[in-house]
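Priority: low. Protein: Alpha-1,4 glucan phosphorylase. Input follows.
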Amino acid sequence: MTFKGQTALPTPTPRRLDPDGIAVEIVERLTYRLGKNAAAAKPHDWLHAVIMEIRDRVIDAWIASTQKTYEEQGRRVYYLSLEFLIGRLMRDAASNMEMLDDLQAALDKLGVDIDLIAALEPDAALGNGGLGRLAACFMESMATVDVPAYGYGIRYVNGMFRQEISDGWQVELPETWLAHGNPWEFERREASYEVGFGGRVDPAEGDDAGPHQMCWRPNERVIATAYDTPIAGWRGNRVNTLRLWEAQPIDPILLDKFNAGDHLGALAESNRAEALTRVLYPADSSPAGQELRLRQEYFFSSASLQDIVRRHVQYFGDVRTLPDKAAIQLNDTHPAVSVAELMRILVDDHGLDFDEAWDITRRTFSYTNHTLLPEALESWPVPLFERLLPRHMQIVYAVNSRLLGEARRSGQFDDGAIGAISLIDEGGERRVRMGNLAFAGSHSVNGVSALHTDLMKVTVFSDFHRLYPTRINNKTNGVTFRRWLMQCNPGLAGLIREAIGERFLDDAEALRELDRFADDSAFQDRFLAVKRANKAALSDLLRQRVAARIDPSALFDIQIKRIHEYKRQLLNIIEAVALYDQIRSHPEKDWVPRVKLFGGKAAPSYHNAKLIIKLANDVARAVNHDPAVQGLLKVQFVPNYNVSMAEVMIPAADLSEQISTAGMEASGTGNMKFAVNGALTIGTLDGANVEMRDHVGEENIVIFGLTAQEVNARRADGYVPRDVIEGSRELGQALQAIAGGVFSPDDPDRYKGLVQGIYDHDWFMVAADFDSYAAAQRQVDALWADERAWAKKAILNVARMGWFSSDRTIREYANDIWKIPA
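Result:
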């Protein structure tokens, strides 16, 4: 295979696909790439050699995919995301390249335990939660359904953080996942770009300079260098590229300062550059933190846009054809500054007229919104934005002038609505609204569940929707079942294959054929045996990690997600306290043994979220040490929740907690992963729970609580939570115990403020939904007591989740937004 102007190269020798051949190649890589004799090799050496064996086969498909894209000369997707929570790649890549079974057989011949070495692979610390995991699923699905794509993000050295629990409190430590290198990535020194900050803007010089063309002269520059990771689709159909940017100083060390004794000053430029790609989501509670986060977002956006435009011009010559060949998807508001950056490149670097550049920009970009929380739609103080990005501030003002003029000419808007559309928030401190910039600069804006999309039209983007009534559309999220069923739950995947054949491996909706086995007692027995084995595996892991002793026969009730008040881990904990009281008060009842497992990280500056983690651990200490409830209730917080831990916890779950305040969770994807692994959902009608109920059947999901419309009505009608609390004996007692120091004898006032917030305003409707939630949990207890009924509902959940495949989601993006056949 040759590219234009390239002479024919020798064709590589075909690789052997049998276990003996793979074993030989693994030993060769161990010997000649790592310099290790097989007899002296340690587990991490075997891991590295195995990854290189898999990687070489991925590279063959990667090169073929690149050649195919070049020859087709079609449109390519560029997916910009601040997070890509890809997890471990060894099993994922081996499975997708259809060599996992042969690889395991080869390692058996070599006397190497594949599970042991797989556990040594670090999780890439490139994300925090659902946003980053969705991006990872989408990258895999784009390759699977043959959509040519690049993912663009940041190569974080330490990522979010490694969470440890000390005396019940979250402690943030650096996540050193790159300490020993990353065998999956390839540095691309030829793909390096200057990214500037600050400085001044002058009119462009020369007779051919356009009226809007300017010359930005930054006073600070860093180099963005690309590191590429191949992302293999199912059956190696296509391999796409995840390109992550590392920041490097132009001058790593100022020798004159160093030799003069100013050692810190000599390294200041290097330290400032390295800070850009060291930590995901630096705390923005201080001006310095806000500045670093904006720098990060512009750094990766600028590098990505420069790379996209350079590639387009190299292949197609004319930058004006960019919308025909490039579809750029903004994953949330973090890369929204890309809109202004592309305008700068088109106007200043390529000399296009402003209006023509704006037309090209809007036809190129599309934007995925992930939140209805106004505070989560990023905005930046105008002085900060203007100081760091003076040319982009000019562009934002120019775009805003055109946008507001268009709105006024439409005759639909009063001054209040005009102000809501503006890219500049004039209320109080003037701020640049990144959500508005993303909306204005895109031809498509999508929500991620049907409910979320409908609410977008009447809440955060209601005025934009009136101005552009066809721009908002829905693309309900999905997950890749290759990782979240086939790989993380091989027992269940094998059972399904025996029952209905292999079609579901390529078409997740074929899982529907399991419907006919839901009442089959023999299949139910095998299904429950798989679940019991997964629960035993999780119990063993928790005994090793946190010295917890958990009975696999108990109901495993699991809530694992980012710690946030709207996700309502607090509601779950309060109900656990109420259940604890009830078990002690009524020992004569036939209580269902239950294990409540929590996992998730709190943002370092989010006080209440960190306090909720501490409360979970304080409640766990009291409950787990009380002989009155032994064998009936156990509470455990699992530290450092990540993709690898999710791959163990999700297959073991009996009950999936999806209990966010209705109208506040955009979609969720954990809900989908749990359900396809045979867990029943307890949840509100929020996010994708609504569509899950419609697909699995309302009798196979446990729904409670206020709807989004009821939540809004309560807030509007002057909701008084104190009245609700005083009317609920169990809730009142639980809150009094927490606020009174029952679970914090060392600091009796620790939780007074947290509880007082529920009494005073209860914005997240914890009190309002408590009785309904507690009743739903007793409904779960009754169902658990009927093993056959529970098994039937769990099997039907698996059978009816095929629609929630990320392959379906990506095909919808490709057909409706990107205009790429898929």
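Residues 185 and 229 are 5 Å apart (CA to CA). The chain has three domains: 16-64+91-122, 73-88+123-476+811-818, 545-798.
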